[in-house]
Amino acid sequence: MLAYRADTAFDGERPLPGGVLVFVDGGRIVGVEPGGAPAPDGCDVTHLPGTTLLPGLIDAHVHLCGDAGPGALDRIPDMTPIELDAVVENALHAHLAAGVTAVRDLGDHRYTVVDRHHAPAGGPTVVAAGPPVTSVGGHCWSMGGEVATAADIRAAVRERAERGADVVKVMVSGGVMTTTTDVLACQFTLADVRLLVAEAHRHGLPVTAHAHPVAAVELALDAGVDGIEHATCLTGDGMYTPPELAERLAAAGTFVCPTFGFDAQRTGGELPPQLRTALARGNMRLEDRPGQIATLIRAGVTLVAGVDCGINPAKPHGLLPLSLAGLVGCGMPPVAALASATSVAARACRLEQRTGRLRPGLDADLLIVDGDPMTDITALGRTRMVISRGRVAYR
């Protein structure tokens, strides 16, 4: 048995005054005691002074098949299975180094993640959607999820259930990175999405919906999806969350993953040209985004941490700590931001019986950082140690 002691701690929902002593055995948390508690004789205790211990982070929106290079999604169909495997493994390694011990992949190429990396021997736990369900020629159509009829929708959901997917992703609107689609338009009718939700729920699978314009967010909400990705609330005049829509989302308890954050330094301080062009198509002004997210925060919408990693150079894998700092900059309290990447994300990904909390019986997914992210969220970027299912993955 091993133990990890910290002077400051966050248990996935709240601070633990006086720190914590976490006991680990066989890849599981077997005990959680106050920070000053003694350890049994012979128990190897790791104590890094000046650090905070918290559950490993969860990035609820990644694309492991994307290498975060220029035209990342466009190049996926031309990769060999061996090349795709390497991209996925590199992505998982980058997440672990950033303290991310679980990811939800919301769009792979023809079941690459579901078939090969659904239960990796080491590294982050993976929740996988397989190819997103999209319209013919719709957003991310090349991943293999096109449907045209009600029969196609039923068959698509059944296929995902049979292949072992954990969630169904549906592209309710066009997308930024598929230049042949209209980011301001819905790709499905309300009846289509209601059918998909009913079929998915019948198979025991949750549904999360890619939705950019206000009309798509409203349609997804009306259809009863479990989660909404992006929710940028686009109109022809830019990004703006109608307060009444934010209140509806909050009342419904719908998980909303805003996929906020990008690494401009990685691209020389500017967005990649392809991304600038794509944003301009939808009149998506980045300066509008903090205020748009702030409306969701004030309304009490259940926000889930996620970045959309892998899709372009500004969205590299392992960016979640920077994304959380961005949410705090939008007005989210640091403790709430941490919960959005631990206990809340675990619920959204249906991993609450495995991870997201410091609780006996859960996987020993732990993150130790210098400083206190509950008062300074940027401390998440100062990783000292990452433990994934009881194994030290980074130090």
Distinctive features:
395 residues, alpha/beta, Urease, subunit C, domain 1, TIM Barrel, 2 domains, six-stranded mixed sheet, five-stranded mixed sheet, 12 helices, globular
Question: Could you please describe the fold and organization of this structure?
Answer:
The protein is α/β, with parallel strands linked by helices. It folds into two domains: 2-55 and 356-394, Roll (Urease, subunit C, domain 1); 57-348, TIM Barrel. The protein has helices at residues 72-75, 81-97, 112-117, 150-163, 190-202, 214-223, 243-252, 273-281, 289-299, 320-329, 334-340, 343-348; strands at residues 2-6, 8-9, 20-25, 28-34, 44-47, 51-55, 57-62, 100-105, 125-128, 134-135, 146-147, 168-171, 207-213, 227-235, 238-239, 255-257, 302-303, 366-370, 383-388, 391-394. Strands 12, 13, 14, 15, 16 and 17 form a six-stranded mixed β-sheet that branches. Strands 2-6-18-19-20 form a five-stranded mixed β-sheet, with no helix packed on it. The chain is globular.
Briefly say what this structure is.
With about 400 residues, the protein is of the alpha/beta class.
